[in-house]
Amino acid sequence: MLSHDKIWAAIDRLAERHQLTPSGLARRAGLDPTSFNKSKRIASDGRMRWPSTESISKVLDATGSSIDQFMSYIQGESSVPNGSFPPQTGSIPLLGFAQAGAGGFFDDGGFPAGQGWDLVEFPAAPGLKSGVYALEVQGDSMKPLYRDGDVLIVEPGAQVRRGDRVVVKTREGEVMAKVLARQSAKAIELVSLNPEHPNRNLDMTDVEWIARIIWASQ
């Protein structure tokens, strides 16, 4: 059963999932930064205020989240989706870029799921959050920054900022590593790591997920 508190708690969980404050989530969605503040949830006369369906739609679009994920937050389920890997304690799942584009290895939030993953040891893993995984570079499209065989440690759900190195998966199954130049609620601009490959401008509706690169094995 839907309730005022559960709806707002789901928004808080969505913000937490993307390492944002409620104000930061509103800002990312192009809303007034105070839209989700605690003070806005109850009117001055004591009436409960509900977030609009338009606001919820905008934050789902801005974070690449599905309505099913949002409903799971309303129902009080964990912010880490079912089927995701448990917190790592010394090894993390490893997949090649070509495999990553094939589908079936990730959930809608970019977290590892399903079968077929290898494992790689990563000494810093105990301090990392659940869902961190590794992607192995294949080919020369990321030279000179990353070479064939380099391993990138990726953190899905992390807040990304201009200048961050990121991995992006499109809804058509393309997986790419780029530098984030700009992101809005509607579009994302990506700078290529290899000058021989073009920069990319994508509509957010075409992006399945975006994850921050936090370490490389160079």
Can you give keywords for this protein?
218 residues, alpha+beta, 434 Repressor (Amino-terminal Domain), Umud Fragment, subunit A, 2 domains, 5 helices, 25% strand, elongated
What can you see in these coordinates?
The chain has 218 residues and is an alpha+beta fold. The chain contains five helices and nine strands. Strands 2-1-3-4-9-5-6-7-8 form a nine-stranded mixed sheet. A hairpin with a 3-residue loop joins strand 6 (175-183) and strand 7 (187-192). Helix 1 packs across helix 4 (67-74). Mean pLDDT is 78; it is low at 78-89.
Q: CATH superfamily name of the largest domain? A: Umud Fragment, subunit A
The assigned structural class equals alpha+beta
Q: Strand order across the biggest sheet?
A: 2-1-3-4-9-5-6-7-8
- The gyration radius over C-alpha positions equals 18 Å
Determine the number of helices (DSSP H or I, runs of at least 4 residues). 5
What is the CATH topology assignment of the largest domain?
Umud Fragment, subunit A
Distance between the termini: 51 Å
Shape: elongated
Q: Please summarize the sheet with the most strands.
A: 9 strands, mixed
Q: How helix-rich are the residues, as a percent range?
A: 10-25%
Task: Encode the helix/strand succession as letters.
Answer: HHHHEHEEEEEEEE
* Residue runs with pLDDT of under 50 for 5 or more positions: 78-89
Oligomeric state of the chains in view: single chain
Kindly state the number of beta strands. 9
